[in-house]
Amino acid sequence: MKELLIELFSEEIPARMQGKASGDLKTLVTDGLVEAGLTYASAAAFATPRRLALVIEGLSEASQESREERKGPKVGAPEKAIEGFLRSTGLTMDDLQVRPDKKGEAYFATIVTPGRGAAEIVAEVLEKTIRTFPWPKSMRWGSGSLRWVRPLHSILCVLSDEGGAEVVPLELDGLVAGDRTQGHRFMGPAAFSAQSFEDYEAKLKTARVILRPDARAEAIWHDATHLAFAKGLEVVEDNGLLAEVAGLVEWPVVLMGGIEDEFLGLPPEVLQTSMKEHQKFFSVKNPKTGRIEAWVTVANIEAEDGGAAILAGNSRVLRARLSDAKFFWDNDLREIRDRGLAGMAEGLANVTFQSKLGSQADRVARIEALARLIAPMVGAEAEQAAEAARIAKADLRSEMVGEFPELQGLMGRYYAAEGGHAPEVAAAVQEHYAPLGPSDDVPTAPVSVALALADKLDTLAGFWAIDEKPTGSKDPFALRRAALGVIRLILANDLRLPLDELIGQANRGADMADLMRFFHERLKVHLRDAGVPHDVIDACLTKESADLALVTARAKALADVLKTDDGENLVQGFKRANNILSQAEAADGVEYSFGADPKFAEEAEEKALFAALDAAEAKITPALEAEDYAAAMSAMAALRAPIDAFFEAVQVNADNQLLRRNRLNLLSRIRSVCLAAADLTRLEG
Amino acid sequence: MADRPRSFQEIILRLQTYWSGQGCAILQPYDMEVGAGTFHPATTLRALGDRAWAAAYVQPSRRPTDGRYGENPNRLQHYYQYQVILKPSPPDLQALYLGSLEAIGIDMANHDIRFVEDDWESPTLGAWGLGWEVWCDGMEVSQFTYFQQVGGHDCHPVSGELTYGLERLAMYVLGAEHVMEMPFNDPQSPIPLTYGDIFRQTEEEYSRHNFDAADTEKLLGDFERAEAECHALLSLPEEDPKTGKRIVLAHPAYDQCIKASHIFNLLDARGVISVTERQAYIGRVRALAKACADAFVTTDAAKAA
Questions:
Q1: What kind of architecture, by CATH, is found in domain B8-208?
Q2: Is the Cβ pair B129, A139 closer than 8 Å?
Q3: What protein family is recorded (chain B) (predicted)?
Q4: Which of residues 161-190 of B touch A (CB under 8 A)?
Q5: A301 interaction partners in chain B (CB closer than 8 Å)
Q6: Among A196, A423, A601, B169, which residue has the fewest nearby CB atoms (within 10 Å)?
Q7: Is A570 in contact with A637 (CB distance < 8 Å)?
Q8: A327 CB within 8 Å of a chain B CB
């Protein structure tokens, strides 16, 4: 058994790509080795900013010899056929065996592929891995044509066992694999050789590189929390940032600095955004006041001066950034004091939303009208919804959002509160963008819901009206996200909205039927993710379905009942009834849709089905009216036993035409009773 | 920092000396208004074709929208970039770059230098590359790019491009809080001059000019004329009737492309270009850059010696 150690040493790999890259390295190499006939016990991969490393333990020494038997021409076949067979197998006449075959005797060849040593296979697999590596973006450098995420400098590839270590012979565009690498760029630049993974990891550590990303993250978090704790503060958790920062350093050194008093009045989100996005700082808050008062940065070097210059430099950069932020904040507040948030919004008339859809001010006017209309449907006060709509986009004109676009909405909320607007109006200004992603929270406050719906419906109807719909992977105006947002707002708040009418109100020019189809498609995607199969939704959906909450409730009830034995079998019974009926209708050229009469029922099962259909109908109709879909579906499912029994005992196509007609009309009742609950013909399988 | 430069110009001189020592031709700024050092034909055009190349230069750059009347401590509508281009990119380019930081007094033992992902793209030049922004103690001090494509052409070999934002870097090295207070020449000189002594007034004048005074009607016409002339120059027959030689007007045409690009920036600062028009203008400048690149690659300067 051998151990295989691979390191690909390059210039700095983007932090966000390191995790996936180490995983890909492991998968590609282990899959390649196994495919070539080697086995291994375990594998692990690691990444630092400058290297991807892979260790494979318990690797077999060689692949097994393989034998394949191939049948050739018959004995006595033309010379040419035999020559061709010899050529294709690479054998001579003497190597062939003659054995009896179905008709006479035939030549047989045994092709032996000898086993290959691990080194040879590793070289082949690693070369292929490097040449086909799935980087999200790769590049060339110098005069070469090799591609890697950034210039690749060296390849370490060593096979080892108790007997020692050997370098796997491999050359790739001038890069010769060896057993050497180097440590930290500044603290351990001397080259060293590694004989095994243990040796490699230990020497890296001496050369000031922590190989394991989780160990770096842990060290950062440990040191950061301790530094903060010593000052009575706590670090604001941010796992995304922690992973990113761990991918920016090979030897993390944590330093903490304070925020100057003059900036402490800024909203905490401004401090946090400024520090995280631009500087990759962790925010540190005072648990007593809840304010963010300090920051933590992670350097990649143990400085001779203990980090004084690094801290001073970082403080200086932060001061410049926060001075900007404070300048914007003060200017915005002054503007709101002088002219109000509505005054700030005036400038929106000069900003184009979309050339065919007018300015942002035009858009706001449309949203206001729509929000007024929606407000009573969602329990909000129309005047409040309209007020919130008028100031919803005002912060786009603020200096703060100009600098930090990601703070749109949030700044609007602060400014609305500063401008004396009611808390629910201010909240709506922030929340009207939500939900953004599939995991984003859905607003529930009525004013927020009204505004969020109005904003999204205006966008959707507007872009539909100018025929800018999403196509394939292209959705530049995020219309799919907007439609999903509407759907989630409706479902989470159980809203009963006439979506088709609202679209018409939002923009007369929009093709309403087409936009409804789009909503239905998005609803299907959304419910499918929630475990409702698409055909179940189809069974509850018509082109006219404008009330998505009802469609969803019905689909969920149907999906639930289909999971039961009765439900599943009912569908089979329904389909059988429907098929027989459809065939008969096609053959006879008439519609059997009326007049099934229990007095012509002969068999007990037939009579029972009449009774069961009456009973089911008596339950389903009122249940549907009461929107109690669970009751409707279970009443439908209760038909399973009588339908099964009917088909078991009764022949529909009886010789007696009177009986036949009556039975076909009975099948039609099965169809109509079930279809009232859901369109079971749409179900697959 | 033991060996610390004392002025803005000393930092520039040290960079010139350093890169000269690394074998670069030290060029002078291009004599036209450009938005960044990359626009200098010594970078844009020389990154094309297979002829080896090594050059370094200061390039005064203009970004009309960044004007702040000289008041903002860090923002200027006219500033200097230091530009280095090496083709093919040498294997030790990162080390060479770090050497340049040491040359201007940044001590690697006490500062935190980081290469942070930053892919570079210039929609107006039809160019892109991969690389990093280089951070020193959390501050971006340079752009480091391996050109992959310029003017729509794949770069073979690949050029390594380094761009230093000189004011920002110098402010850091010299410890200046406001760009206008930064010593331009040695503060011990008989006539010490700050950056503000030289540029405060021009920042005011150009800020007013760029935002409010530039004649937009004239600029719109200038853009059209530059665009038309660029195409006209490139459509001339390759053989010069006077000398009988093949003379393709790649550089004169490219001058018109530079001109169109700067006029577009001015129009943008004047606020007369809508969001939708913006894309169209960028596309038109890119078409010029691409046409110039197409022409340049057919000339001797693009071919291996």
A1: 2-Layer Sandwich (3.30)
A2: yes
A3: Belongs to the class-II aminoacyl-tRNA synthetase family.
A4: 172
A5: 109, 111-113
A6: A423
A7: yes
A8: no
- Which of A9, A10, A12, A154 is the best substitution to test chain B (most B C-beta atoms within 10 A)? A12
Please state the three-class secondary structure of chain B as a single string.
CCCCCCCHHHHHHHHHHHHHHCCCEECCCCCCCCCCHHHCHHHHCCCCCCCCEEEEEEEEEECHHHCCCCCCCCCCCEEEEEEEEEECCCCCHHHHHHHHHHHCCCCCCCCCEEEEECCEEECCCCEEEEEEEEEECCEEEEEEEEEEEECCEECCCCCEEEEEEHHHHHHHHHCCCCHHHCECCCCCCCCCCEHHHHHHHHHHHHHHHHHHHCCHHHHHHHHHHHHHHHHHHHCCCCECCCCCCECCCHHHHHHHHHHHHHHHHHHHHCCCCCHHHHHHHHHHHHHHHHHHHHHHCCCHHHCCC
pLDDT of residue A543: 85
- Residue contact B157–A186, C-beta within 8 A: no
Smallest CA–CA distance, residue A221 to chain B, in Å, is 19
Asked whether this chain's domains B8-208 and B214-302 adopt the same fold, the reply is: no
Q: Where residue B83 falls among pLDDT bands split at 50, 70, 90?
A: very high
pLDDT of A105 higher than 50? yes
Considering only alpha carbons, which residue of chain B is nearest residue A245? B116
B91: chain A residues, CB-CB within 8 Å: 142, 151, 153
- On whether any CB of chain B is under 8 Å from the CB of A186, the answer is yes
> B214-302: CATH homologous superfamily?
Class II aaRS and biotin synthetases; domain 2 (1.20.58.180)
Contact A313 B129 (CB under 8 A): no
Query: B88 and A16 in contact by Cβ < 8 A?
Result: no
Q: How many CB pairs under 8 A join A and B?
A: 107
pLDDT of residue B275: 66
Query: Where do the domains of chain B lie?
Result: 8-208, 214-302
Question: For position A310, what pLDDT does the model report?
Answer: 96
Alpha carbons A401 and A403: distance in angstroms, whole number: 5
For chain A, list the domains and their CATH numbers.
2-62+117-206 (3.30.70), 69-113 (no CATH), 213-302 (no CATH), 353-530 (1.10.3210), 561-682 (1.10.730)
Query: Cis omega (within 30 of 0) on the bond before B88?
Result: yes
Chain B residue closest to A299 (CA)?
B112
Write the pLDDT tens digit of every residue in B112-127.
Answer: 999 999 989 999 999 9
Q: Beta partners for A630?
A: none
For the cut 60, the answer to whether the pLDDT of residue B107 exceeds it is yes
Of B107, B130, B138, the CB nearest to A137: B130
Count of all residues that appear for chain B in the document: 305
B275 touches chain A (CB under 8 A): yes
A contact residues 81-140, partner B, Cβ 8 Å cutoff: 137, 139-140
The yes-or-no verdict on residue A685 having pLDDT over 70 is no
| A541, A487 contact by CB (below 8 A) | no
Q: DSSP code of A148?
A: B
Q: Which range among A59-68, A127-136, B226-235, B272-281 shows the weakest confidence by mean pLDDT?
A: B272-281
Please state, as a whole number, how many other Cβ atoms lie within 10 Å of the Cβ of residue A378.
24
Q: In terms of CA atoms, which chain B residue is nearest residue A280?
A: B138
User: Closest to B109 (Cβ–Cβ): which among A15, A143, A304?
Assistant: A304
- Residue B2: per-residue pLDDT: 47
Reduced to 3 states, what is the DSSP secondary structure of residue A63? coil
Written as six digits, the tokens of B262 are 């700067």
Q: Under an 8 A CB cutoff, do A142 and B138 touch?
A: no
Average pLDDT on A253-269 reads 94
The number of beta carbons lying within 10 Å of the beta carbon of residue A232 is 9
Q: Are A542 and A493 in contact (CB under 8 A)?
A: no
A252: nearest CA partner in chain B: B112
Residue B247 has pLDDT above 50, yes or no: yes
